[in-house]
Write a structure and sequence with these properties.
- The chain is an all-alpha fold.
- The chain has one domain (4-140): Four Helix Bundle (Hemerythrin (Met), subunit A).
- It is 71% helix and 0% strand.
- The protein contains 6 helices and no strands.
């Protein structure tokens, strides 16, 4: 197996942890930003991928939070996390609507009264608009690590 330090790129363990975290955030931020640019016309799978990237970014932001200690960074971090929560909530609701028909079918509940209401096209359109707005707010939120 060998020593992980001899196998790793020397620059990884010599760089400041804030630089490492910022690089992680930048990569994930770009995925969420680019992936969500057109949520209105995107398919369910694309929106789900944005949801996963958003979840990774939020978890990374929460994990590395102690590295960003200044008052300004803390304030920006709180705002960033709030924007992330809103985006995740909207994308999660969309995912629930998208997966409801298959879930109901798997449980043998497709014909139960009210089952079709769980994935109405009207509700989905509203959720997509809300998700697009949450994405815009996320993009406009100042990055705490910069």
């Amino acid at each position: 197996m060998g020593d992980w330090r001899t196998q790793a790129d020397e620059t990884l363990y010599e760089q400041p942890s804030t630089d490492f975290a910022a690089a992680v955030f930048d990569k994930l931020w770009k995925k969420v930003t680019k992936g969500g640019n057109n949520l209105i016309d995107a398919d369910d799978e694309t929106r789900h991928k944005v949801r996963i990237a958003a979840k990774k970014l939020r978890y990374a932001a929460e994990f590395f939070e102690p590295l960003f200690k200044s008052k300004a960074q803390a304030k920006r971090h709180r705002r960033f996390i709030e924007a992330m929560k809103d985006l995740q909530d909207q994308l999660g609701s969309l995912n629930d609507v998208a997966t409801a028909p298959d879930m109901l079918a798997a449980l043998g509940l497709s014909d139960v009264a009210g089952a079709k209401d769980l994935s109405s096209a009207e509700d989905k359109c509203k959720l997509i608009e809300d998700a697009a707005e949450a994405h815009r707010a996320f993009v406009d939120t100042r990055r705490f690590w910069r």
